[in-house]
Amino acid sequence: MAKKTFTFFIPLPKSLFGHTVVGRTGRFTVSGKVTSFEESFPLEGVSVHAKGTTVYDVTKADGTYKIEVRPEHNTLLFELTDYELSEVSLSEENCYDVVLKKTAIYPSRVVLGSTRYIHQLRIRPFPVLTG
User: Fold this and answer.
1) Are 76 and 49 in contact (CB under 8 A)?
2) Can you tell me the distance from the alpha carbon of 72 to that of 64, in angstroms, rounded to the nearest whole number?
3) Is residue 11 part of a domain?
4) Which of 54, 30, 56 lies closest to 45, judged by CA?
């Protein structure tokens, strides 16, 4: 007696897997330039993150960045102190030029860099000259 094999296809909604960039498979590279809205000059040191990941790049002196992301990571975050946070949703484009505006108020968060070494600071009193 011959075995019969049945194949079933069950369509699943996209909402189970989250939004992905249409037409993309595997990793792809996104690049572009970040400039200031007020002065229209390139911004150096802007942190470019793939939202929800640890993948990031920092813009160079000419404002350019290049980051490799997966299709399921469909949003890039652009952050720089004294500038508004900017979110860009990815589509099938490979180049995204972003313009950041300065904030009118103090930033809502501050990013501090550190090392694994702790340095002690010794404060010594110094004489005050009066005269």
Assistant:
1) yes
2) 23
3) no
4) 56
CATH number at 45 reads: 2.60.40.4130
| Rounded Cα–Cα distance for residues 19 and 2 (Å) | 43
Token pair listed for 64: 């350019």
Domain range for 43 is 25-100
Q: What is the pLDDT of residues 94-114, one digit of tens each?
A: 899 999 998 876 555 555 555
pTM of the predicted model as reported, rounded to 2 decimal places: 0.63
CA pair distance 104, 9, nearest whole angstrom: 54
* Interval 24-41: pLDDT, tens: 567 889 999 999 998 889
46 is a domain residue: yes
